[in-house]
Amino acid sequence: MNAVGPRRVVLAGGSGQVGTLLARHFQAKGDAVVVLSRNPTSAPWRVTGWDAVTVGPWINELENANLLINLAGRSVNCRYNAANRREILASRVQSTRILGEAIAKLPQPPPLWLNSSTATIYRHALDRAMDEQTGELGGNEPNAPSSWRFSIDVAKSWEENFFASELPSTRKIALRSAMVMSPDRGGIFDTLLRLVRLGLGGASGSGRQFVSWIHEADFIAAIEFLVAREDVRGAVNVSSPNPLPNRQFMQALRTAWGTRAGLPATKWMLEFGAIFLRTETELILKSRRVIPRCLQDAGFQFQFPDWPRAAQDLVHCWKNLSEHP
């Protein structure tokens, strides 16, 4: 997609951490950004309302847009009770389905639609890395908790609905993203660093489970790379090429902060604490060993391929934000 001049970029469900990262990036480049939100609030870019279920006036934002990125979906950082499960699934499937219906109605649809997916779609993997060509989708792991199977079912349904719509004028990419590490407050990196600062940043569970991650700078660069590479379509892993075990991951984060010790958290401690924090231990204990084969084969170069250097940069940026909020 070779747009001349400022691009028109639509971020559906772009009010969260990743949406804010992208909106900030595109705005800084001079692009015309609009965020579709179920709860519109004031922002440096234009925000318009949608219900993510039915076609409404928001469809006009897609006409002649250069790029659509759908990030809509209820946060998975919650307990997987029946009500939350229904909302997690519906918020992803319905928003994806209605965007496909809307695009099909347009005389001048976006030439590129990037839709969120997740690296969680792959099985619990300690033995080998999972790429787009040879990776094994999860759901059949023996003795896996039902919450793990639920997350995989959601990811599969999400992608099935995305690729089901026939849109000959729109290239489609499912972003199987790992955890995006940003120094912004309230994100996953901020949460992990808080554990380290409190002396609790040791290994979680066995510490053998792999952590897949990506630095915010590489995430944004990967998005721009996919925009430019018109030959790339389908499912793409958006992650660092070097996932590492949780024990080493937390050790590198402690080193970046400047502390050596961190209290570990056993599996039963995590299960107990998750109840009070109203979250699920899957987010910590499932081994996500994902590598970005598609990006690498296409020639993408990572600025932060290794976690120790990425952690040092993120800690530095986090401290700067604290001093100059």
Description:
The chain is of the alpha/beta class. It has a single domain (8-320), classed as 3-Layer(aba) Sandwich (Rossmann fold). It has helices at residues 17-28, 82-104, 146-164, 188-197, 216-228, 246-257, 267-277, 282-285, 293-297, 307-323, and strands at residues 8-12, 32-37, 46-49, 67-70, 112-116, 171-177, 179-181, 210-211, 213-215, 234-238, 244-245. Strands 3-2-1-4-5-6-10 form a seven-stranded parallel beta sheet, with helices on both faces. Helix 2 links the parallel strand 4 (67-70) and strand 5 (112-116). The model has no long low-confidence stretch (mean pLDDT 91).
Architecture blueprint of SSEs:
Layout: E1 8-12, H1 17-28, E2 32-37, E3 46-49, E4 67-70, H2 82-104, E5 112-116, H3 146-164, E6 171-177, E7 179-181, H4 188-197, E8 210-211, E9 213-215, H5 216-228, E10 234-238, E11 244-245, H6 246-257, H7 267-277, H8 282-285, H9 293-297, H10 307-323
Parallel strand pairs: 1-2, 1-4, 2-3, 4-5, 5-6, 6-10, 7-9
Antiparallel strand pairs: 8-11
Helix pairs in contact: 2-3, 4-6, 6-10
CATH class: Alpha Beta
In CATH, the architecture is 3-Layer(aba) Sandwich
Strand order of the largest sheet: 3-2-1-4-5-6-10
| Average pLDDT, all residues | 91
Q: What overall form do the CA principal axes indicate?
A: globular
Helix content: 25-40%
Quaternary state of the chains: single chain
CATH topology name, in short, is Rossmann fold
Q: What is the CATH H-level superfamily?
A: NAD(P)-binding Rossmann-like Domain
Order of helices and strands: EHEEEHEHEEHEEHEEHHHHH
Proportion of β residues?
5-15%
Number of strands: 11
Please, how many helices? Answer: 10
The end-to-end distance, rounded to whole angstroms, is: 36 Å
Low-confidence stretches: none
The profile of the biggest β sheet is: 7 strands, parallel
Number of domains: 1
Structural class: alpha/beta
Radius of gyration: 19 Å
